[in-house]
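Hi team,

Filling in the usual template for the complex we talked about on Friday. All components are listed, including any nucleic acid strands or ligand strings, so the model treats them as one assembly.

SUBMITTER: L.P.
PURPOSE: interface mapping
COMPONENTS: two
RESIDUES: 595
SEQUENCES:
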Amino acid sequence: MSTAVSHRLRRSRPRRIASNTGLAVAVLLLLLPLLWGIGTALKPEADAFDNSLSSFGHATEFSNFVAAWNYGPFGRFLLNGLIVGVAGAAITVTTSLLAGYAFARLHFRGRDKLFFLYVATLVVPQQVLVVPMFFLMRDLGWINSYQALIVPWAFSAFGVFLMRQFFRTIPLELEEAAKVDGASHLWIFLRVMVPMVVPAIGVLGLFTFIAYWNSFLWPLIVIDSRNLATVPLGLQFFLSQQGYQWNLLMAGGTISLIPGVVLAFVLQRYLSRGISLSGLGGR
Amino acid sequence: MSATAVPITTTTAGPRPARRRKRTDARTALFFLLPNGVGFLVFTIAPLIASLVLSLFAWPLIGTTSFVGLQNYITLFSKDMTFRSAILNTVYFVAAYVPLNIIVAMSVALWLQGYGRTRRILRVVFFVPVLTPLVADAVVWSLLFTTRNGLIDSVVHGIFHVQGPEWLSAPQWAMPSIIIVAVWQGFGYNMLLFTAGLHAIPETFYDASQIDGASRWRTFWSITVPLLSPSLFFGIILTVITSFQVFDLAYILTDGGPGTSSTTIVYWLFEKGFNDYAMGYASAIAWVLFLIVIVITGIQMRLQRRWVFYET
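RESULT (copied from the run log):
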């Protein structure tokens, strides 16, 4: 396969040089905001308001990162983000697996109509639900709580849809064989079906986690305590209190970017292949 | 004929086991569906209906509520000038952001097509911004956008010898600035989607077009695009839906301004609902957004038949 691809991509020399130069420029453009932010974060306070190129490199102050970290407190924000993201992803994956299996493999009255209802809600923007959801949180006494951050978005139709599509690609023969042996649905589900969709679990888990991690509007609505803030909200608190002292602000900003960079490189083996949504119609 | 056929089938033993299986399935199905179903009902279906009902009320957070019928919607479209600019700004964002996102994502996916080590690592690098919160991106980019010796200004001055615009505080540049950051952050997702799609295209198609002496441009339009069209379609649909919800960047980078030049629909919804506490009014804004998304998605579904090519 790889020789075939390189054959497809064979180019003349000048063309290859142009292409590589273009790529280098693109990578630089992509990373520049991050590098510039880190550079500014390392400036001493005297240079913090000067933004010109010549203002870099006079001295490096790692203490800015320490100050921002402690003031945030960014350790807390990162921990909150982790708790909320992992819990949200876990609930989403578990309930989506169960419901996806029912829609893919079980026979019951009204199944297709119910599934259509699920699919129809895929186009509902989160913002349509936000106002009544706020009232619901208030009445449950959940304002300023982890539950408010986690629970409302953990039952998405998207997960059910994704899992159902993946379950449908599994050959029927596999469960027929288990059925002949007298296995129950739960046994088939746990021992035959779930192991077959591990890649889908990974995709859904990752994307749910990212959605929780990056979410801003909803935390902004239900959380006003710094102890419960996730990273985006915590950074917004930090921003409104630090004003425009660039070095501290950039220290906070880059601290908030780093977990994403780390996550990308941890998952690089999976990400580099691309996101295949086979069975989703997206191929 | 069917009148005679029906009694016969019911008396045979055939359908009975099937019926019994169906009944046991129903109980099992309930067990499997319940955890998600309850959450779906409470946290999706109920709020969806509630928000439609709320939109027909004048509903302050504290104080008396009153039924006003379609008054919220009438006010939105006849008196609320900010809402009018919010719609225009959002449409502007979507119209610029979606094509830019798709073009950049497609270009990079094509550029990095293949399995070499460098290409694989670069794909991950280009995906990194997707994993970062927009709020953090906005903070870091706001530094680049600062006027007078900000990075972007310095480059503009160095190359064109003109003073750059006041990016975030000039009405005509606030939206373009937001679009730049949004594309930077968002294209990586579609890039990985297209990458997987490109790798699924059988090599034989390319060989055939090479034998026919087709140019790269021709090959791209006659082979790559049609065979990638399911991925393209999926990417476009999702990108359009999410881009109508633009909020974070407008909130952090420009605060909806200057004036109302970067106030988006969701920004206005948030202002009305969670600053003015006009919950009914905010719900009406939400439903207008919802209807726009439904109509645009519906149109795309319909147009799909014209250009999306499914292998059967």
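MY TAKE: The CA atoms of residues 106 and 139 of chain A lie 37 Å apart. The domain at 93-228 of chain A is CATH 1.10.3720.10 (MetI-like fold).

Thanks, L.
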